[in-house]
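Q: what does this look like with pyridoxal-5'-phosphate bound?
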Amino acid sequence: MTQIQKSLIRQIFEGAPGNSINLALGEPDFLKPDWFIELINSKILNHYAYTPNAGLPEAREAAIEINGYNGFPDDVCLLCGAEEGLFATVAGVKLSVAPGKTQVLAPSPYFLTYPMISRLLGLDYSTYPIPPFCSGSLLESIQDKITASTALVIVNSPANPSGIMVCNDELHAIEELCESRGIFLLVDEVYRYFGNRSCPVSHQWDTIGKFTIAVSSLTKAFGLPGLRLGWAFTKNEVIQQIIIAHQSIAAISPAFSQQLLALFPKNDYKSWLDANREKTISNRENIMLLMDDAGIEYVRPEGAFYSLLKIPDAVMEKMDDVAFAFHLKEQHQILTVPGSAFGEYSKGHLRLSFGGNASTFPEAIQRIRSGIDSVLQKKEQFLKI
Ligand SMILES: Cc1ncc(COP(=O)(O)O)c(C=O)c1O
């Protein structure tokens, strides 16, 4: 199923008309500061040998500083992006838990990697709905779905594809719940710095639960996916199992990227992060205004650079979200991802990704509006006959 969903997303990109506007790609488009460009072009980055498996201590120290983790380099393993971070963490958890603990409980709508990793590792994948797709709170939704075989709960905040955020108090309540049941909690926080104006950083790590593992990367916060540098942070001895898994998957993360990360604290990375956050917040506010003006319904994003646009019921009577995404691509040159790619709760939606250039947004929303109207008009003509 996950394979089908992945190929569906690929099909949206393949053969897209040349003048398409792309709201499908989850990649931010941030400016790079001068100090960063100078470092890349300097001869300082010269480490081509293996590093320790968990990464250079000074780079792990930098990950701690940037994230405000309350810990030490030994609590961190550097990994090849959050993608490997998720894989090595789930593998590390699998190596640590008692036999019979086989369930991974993930949010839905979900990031496609979660089911894929669980299946590759032979674990049982289950989901809990997140607001606004569940009736109660997030905590209750997780509580309802935990079983005796739950090994790991995944929380993603702010979330891909919905942009929904878990606030600090709620996250710590979820940590307590997991701790009381001896269940690991993986917090996928790659979008942590992209909350809304009242809560720009979705949660803080002054304390971290005994069973919690935070996973993040340079990818989204700094717009550096190609450096493939991520990390897992935990106070649990599961870090040793994560390092063992990482040894088998990749041995080390790129030494070049590790050296670069180690130099972030000596440079003004904070202003860079602030600028990226400001751009993301402004893009989000911008696209919400445009959708409101165009009379388009959506799940109100609180963080990240995604929103789930609700396809009007009258359109869904004619075609499902997959057909509508292809209609938008082929007839209106606008690329979006059908919501059903992210699980059952987001069926009938389209994921819009707005990390890119805001100057394209008015035209993008106009094209979506025309796409909706063209299907509705067809329906009216059909009814008149
Ligand atoms: C929720 C989430 N987690 C993890 C990742 C993977 O990030 P990375 O590029 O650091 O591997 C992504 C990428 O889109 C994501 O959306």
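Residues 2-26+270-376 form a domain with the Aspartate Aminotransferase, domain 1 fold (CATH 3.90.1150.10). The first strand starts at residue 21 and ends at 22.
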